[in-house]
Design goal:
The chain is mainly α. It has one domain. Helix content is about 55%, strand content about 5%. It has four helices and two strands. It has a two-stranded antiparallel sheet. α1 crosses α2.
Length: about 80
């Protein structure tokens, strides 16, 4: 994962100039993409405890939900440097 400083110098080298706004946008894109990828890999599912089907002895399986905390905790904010 590139640091902000590495990205800035890379953009300067490739483009000859780089505004802080351009660099911030590119840096955000890199980290959002990585965070979404990490969340898709780390997301955990569970049976919905409030599922009508699962609680009534229904022939249908209970609803499955995604554990929100597994998504929110999937990307280490210390990666952003």
């Amino acid at each position: 994962m590139k640091t902000a400083k590495e990205l800035f110098y890379e953009m300067l080298e490739n483009n000859g100039e780089c505004t802080s706004t351009e660099m911030m946008i590119e840096f955000a894109k890199i980290h959002v993409k990585q965070a979404l990828e990490q969340a898709s890999e780390e997301a955990k599912t569970m049976e919905d405890p409030d599922s009508y089907c699962g609680n009534t002895g229904s022939e249908y399986p209970p609803d499955v939900i995604v554990d929100k905390s597994s998504i929110l905790e999937s990307y280490n904010l210390d990666n952003i440097v």
